[in-house]
Specification:
The chain has 2 domains: about 220 residues, P-loop containing nucleotide triphosphate hydrolases (Rossmann fold, 3-Layer(aba) Sandwich), CATH 3.40.50; about 60 residues, Alpha-Beta Plaits, CATH 3.30.70. The chain is α/β, with parallel strands linked by helices and about 325 residues long. Helix 3 runs parallel beside helix 5 and helix 8 packs across helix 11. The longest helix is centred in the middle third of the chain and has 16 residues. It has a 6-stranded mixed beta sheet with strand order 6-7-8-3-9-10, sandwiched between helices. It has a 4-stranded antiparallel beta sheet with strand order 2-1-4-5. Strands 12-13-11-14 form a 4-stranded antiparallel beta sheet, with helices on both faces. Strand 9 and strand 10 form a beta hairpin. The relative contact order is 0.13. Helices cover about 35% and strands about 30% of the residues.
């Protein structure tokens, strides 16, 4: 496929990355990253700060040339035809990168022009995104005076003003309150349901659970890819939730055992994860041997955070 020809097959991946790598001098920020994103997916790129998530996204957006590897986005090669990629995607960064001295509607007018929305279509399109993001009463408000949640809504409106087939969201909810985060994700799934493919980076584990599929990135490498349920299942983790008379001593005893993957405090409760063994029976055995009384204990559900912590610790060991 040529650099100027888009693959329009309905079953063609919207994003396809093959062994992408990026170096900054001696620093290897991304190494041999490969994944594909299907049309209509909400695909999460999950990892801690500094894992290489944003660098990967910037390469896929045509903003940064790969040091090695190859990627196509909406059918265009990101290295050979970055301008074609940029014109066909929406990109929302973790920082509010709009013009704070312009009003809400002025920002939308500016981005509509930048993205090439036809002049005769602009007013109607601006009215559409203002309505869907709930910005009607703030059309004339100066953007710099908006709260974090409303700035986020405006940034999303600007990045989708041209109705792109693919939307990149780079840490979009960083610093946003929980209510705004939940509302934002409801909007994301509404956009995806309407046919837009979405790639989102995050380090929030609860947000990862909201994605159709995930790529776990750590130290610039992909640790696993799949649905949240598939990734959790592959780790073979079991969880026990318990209360004890002496949480500090119990934590010390549990963490010293090689049978325990993790022990974490959740209020007055301890959450114990094991791999390939019964977590409840293992916790009972360890604490009874240590002479620590268990007040209550029950099986819990392993989640994406458990799987990610387990993979990171294994990779770092």
């Amino acid at each position: 496929m040529s650099a100027t020809t888009s693959d329009s097959r309905p079953d063609a991946p919207v994003v396809e990355a093959e062994n992408l790598a990026r170096r900054f001098g001696e620093l290897v920020a991304v190494r041999s990253v490969s994944f594909s994103v299907a049309r209509g997916e909400v695909f999460g790129v999950l990892g801690p700060n500094g894992a290489g998530k944003s660098t990967t996204i910037r390469m896929l957006c045509g903003l940064l040339d790969p040091s090695e590897g190859h990627a196509t986005v909406v059918g265009f090669d990101v290295a050979r035809d970055p301008d074609a990629v940029k014109s066909r995607i929406g990109y929302m960064t973790q920082r509010f990168s709009l013009y704070e001295d312009l009003s809400v509607v002025e920002n939308l007018q500016f981005y509509a022009a930048i993205y090439g929305v036809p002049r005769q279509r602009r007013r109607a399109r601006i009215d559409e995104v203002v309505a869907t993001t709930g910005l009607e009463d703030r059309r004339k408000q100066i953007s710099g005076t908006l709260s974090g949640g409303w700035k986020q809504r405006l940034a999303l409106a600007c990045s989708t003003i041209h109705d792109p087939p693919l939307l990149f969201l780079d840490e979009p909810t960083a610093g946003v309150d929980p209510v705004s985060r939940r509302e934002f994700w409801e909007r994301i799934h509404a956009i995806a349901a309407a046919g837009t493919t979405i790639v989102v980076t995050t380090h929030y584990m609860d947000e990862a659970e909201r994605c159709h599929r995930l790529a776990f990135i750590f130290r610039g490498s992909v640790l696993d890819i799949g649905t949240p349920a598939e990734i959790v299942a592959r780790r073979g983790l079991q969880v026990a939730e318990l209360e004890v008379d002496d949480p500090v001593a119990a934590t010390r005893a549990l963490e010293s055992s090689q049978q325990v993957e993790e022990c974490a405090h959740y209020g007055r409760r301890l959450r114990v994860a094991t791999r390939g063994r019964d977590a409840v029976a293992t916790a009972r055995e360890i604490l009874q041997a240590a002479g620590i009384a268990i007040t209550s204990i029950e099986a819990g559900r392993a989640d994406v955070e458990d799987a990610f912590v387990s993979m990171v610790r294994e990779d770092a060991s």
